[in-house]
Amino acid sequence: MEILVDLVSDTATRPTEAMKRAMMAAPLGDEQKGEDPTVRALEERMAALLGCERALFVPSATMGNQIALALHAQAGDEVICHRTAHVLNHEGAGAAMTARAQLHPLDTPRGIFTADDVRRVTRADDPHYPRTRCVVVENTSNGGGGSVWPLATYDAVAEHCRAAGLSLHLDGARLFHASVALAVPVGRLARGADTVQVCFSKGLGCAFGAVLALPASLWPRARRLKQALGGCLRQAGIAAGGMLYALDHHVERLADDHRRARALADGLGGVAGLEVEAVETNLVFFRTRTKAPRDLVAAALADGVRVAAAGPDRLRACLHLDVDDAGVERALRALARAAM
Fold first, then answer.
1. Which residues contact 320 (CB under 8 A, 6 or more apart)?
2. pTM score, whole prediction
3. I need a labelling partner for 177 at 20 to 30 A (CA). Which of 93, 112, 251, 321 fits?
């Protein structure tokens, strides 16, 4: 069946024609040998944007997160994250393979926790316990409904990590969404983090690619881990060219996705049998009281609209650059019919 409006994820986007032209025009070299000029330009630009000394191009956000965890933790260590965190739920138990560390999930509202929450679960220095070594903040929080971390809350967590000798990794897969929502530069949102991962294949509309920003002292080990994980490519400038284009053309427009997400949420809020969660960025989570999510998903798909089941009674719709105002209207009609 034809999918007319794909709201299953912002990873459903395809590079625009202009982005593809930028990719094809990018100067290329052997990225594995450090000779690709477009990759180097991307890394330098992202390091400056995020306020870090160095940045490393990686094929995926998952690889960036896993390299970061391996930098901060090792066998016998523990990493604190939220129970909805991507590193816990969607990376194939990678932390157990790369860092060989266990994850300690916090159960707090909307994917956001406080410095007191971290303090409460930080382990005492006792051989019976794993060693608490790292904290992962996900901004925006996917499982938290696309929620944006308040600056004061994030700053307090970062300060606690510094004081307690803990590393802080910022999983900023959708950090530009948070930046646009708060009207704050991404560098300010990354302040205090030891490592920062930013994904380009979601809201920024690239085919693939992410960046891990980090101190210069950690860069050689991160590069070695990237090689071991198979992330060192050849002419990766084709991807980096699209990523540079996205920085110039696809960041400010994220506000359109946020506006359309609110419009979709407002419309769904008027549909009997649906309960819509608060919307902060481009993600719309809603619950169904009349039928199983899989049945609603199937009914909407038969009507040309694709959404995702996100739990036993929860669904997710994701706005992105391939969905316009007309697409939101069509999705509303299809989801209202599907909820009947």
1. 9, 10, 12, 13, 202, 203, 205, 257, 282
2. 0.97
3. 93
Q: DSSP letter string over 58-113?
A: ES-HHHHHHHHHHHH--TTEEEEEETT-HHHHSSTTHHHHTT--EEEEE--GGG--
Q: Are strands 77-82 and 308-309 parallel, antiparallel or unpaired?
A: unpaired
* In contact, 293 and 216? CB cutoff 8 Å: no
Nearest-10 Cα torsion for 144, 149, 155, 159: 10
Tell me what percent of the residues of the chain surpass a pLDDT of 70: 100
Dump the DSSP string for 164-188: HT-EEEEEETTHHHHHHHHT--HHH
Domain ranges for the chain, please list them: 17-249, 253-338
What architecture does CATH give domain 17-249?
Answer: 3-Layer(aba) Sandwich (3.40)
pLDDT tens, residue by residue, 303-317 = 999 999 998 889 999
Can the peptide bond before residue 288 be classed as cis, meaning omega within 30 degrees of 0? no
Question: What single DSSP character describes residue 147?
Answer: B
Integer CA distances (angstroms), 16 to 54, 155, 249, in order: 29, 36, 11
Return the half-sphere exposure (C-beta side, CA atoms, 13 A cut-off) of residue 68: 34
Distance of alpha carbon 331 from alpha carbon 317, whole angstroms = 10
Give 122-131 pLDDT, tens digit per residue: 999 999 999 9
Strands 314-318 and 283-288, bridge-based pairing: antiparallel
Q: Mean pLDDT across the stretch 165-174?
A: 98
Cα–Cα distance between 15 and 17 in angstroms, integer?
7
315 closest CA partner among 259, 251, 271, 253: 271
Residues in the chain: 340
SS3 128: coil
CATH classification for the domain delimited by 253-338, as one of 3.90.1150.10, 2.40.30.170, 3.30.450.20, 3.30.460.10: 3.90.1150.10
The residue type found at 243 is M
